[in-house]
Amino acid sequence: MRVLFHLLEWFNPTWTMAWLLDELHDDLALELDFLHEARNAERCRENLKHLDYVHVPKVHWNLTKKRILTYEFVSGIAIDHVDEMKKMNLSLKDIDEKLIRIFAEQIFRTGFVHADPHPGNVHVRINKNTKSKSAQPAQIVLLDHGLYESLLSEERKILCDLWMASITNDHVRMKQAATALGAPEKDYELFCTLVTMKPLPDTEQYEIPPYAKDWDPLPSELQMIALKSGKFHMPSEDEYKNELSEEQRLTIRKHFRKLMDKKRIALLRILKQMPKTMFLLLRNLNSVRNTLKIHNISDANRTALMTEGCQQALKDFQTKKKKI
């Protein structure tokens, strides 16, 4: 793997990711220790026992060793098998809300985060403990507990501050929280975007749609400012194909390419500087977002539910502070 990464760097010097193997070496080695995975599963099960819509298979300890792991058998459907879930009268919206709440609980409240929740590791079954008139209630089954990340209490507090600052567009707090979590100061906005998985509302950006009806009447100075800054509203695929002239499409491609090159360099800078804990956290967030995309569920719902989890965690911190 290391040789492959270095070969890729040789072909493209700007693509420098071999360092990532060093960062994750210990975690990847632990994934081969099934006693470690079994302990992770038990801890996850204990942390989430108050949520009846999630199930972590029990470990059969008498049949488990460092190279052998035996769980209870649980029948379920991979979370990306949409047609099968619909045949069972399971609601995708219900499934996704529960999935989001589970990982919001881990990220903001317990700090013990499943770092590899891709569809193969997340299954769904009917929750027989709950009744619903509209659809069969779903229960999420979490599998493969080999790769976890532990967030310290202080890290979770800063992460909560970053999330709420991003939602409220408070750039002072965003910068403070982002740098505290290891992001370069000049890249704090991009870092916040990576964590929240949503574009930030930015009053300083030019919101100039490059559509003929709006773009052409603008003074050339404003057009140049918008283009040079790279800060203009990008059209949807349909708008791009049907509403723009060929000249406008060429202009967008040219300037968008420059903007993406800058973002890519900034992204590598962030990944190199931030601690490993944040890298695995981003892996979790991105996996969940990809599942929502497969289900064609609004991302706005994810943001709202994650914010609920964040606010609950902040209440927890306040309660602990009062007790002290």
Task: Characterize the structure shown.
The structure is a single chain. By secondary structure, this protein is α+β, with helices and mostly antiparallel strands. The chain folds into two domains: 31-154 and 276-323, no CATH class; 183-273, no CATH class. The protein contains 14 helices and six strands. The protein is globular and about 75 Å long. The N and C termini lie far apart (49 Å). It holds the Pfam family ABC1. Keywords: Signal. This is ABC1 atypical kinase-like domain-containing protein.
Main attributes of the structure:
324 residues; alpha+beta; four-stranded mixed β-sheet; two-stranded antiparallel sheet; 14 helices; 6 strands; globular
Present the secondary structure layout.
Layout: H1 2-11, H2 19-30, H3 34-47, E1 54-55, E2 77-78, H4 82-87, H5 92-110, E3 112-114, E4 122-126, E5 138-142, E6 148-150, H6 153-168, H7 171-180, H8 188-196, H9 212-215, H10 220-229, H11 237-242, H12 246-273, H13 276-295, H14 299-323
Parallel strand pairs: 1-5
Antiparallel strand pairs: 2-4, 3-6, 4-5
Helix pairs in contact: 5-13, 5-14, 6-7, 6-8, 6-14, 7-8
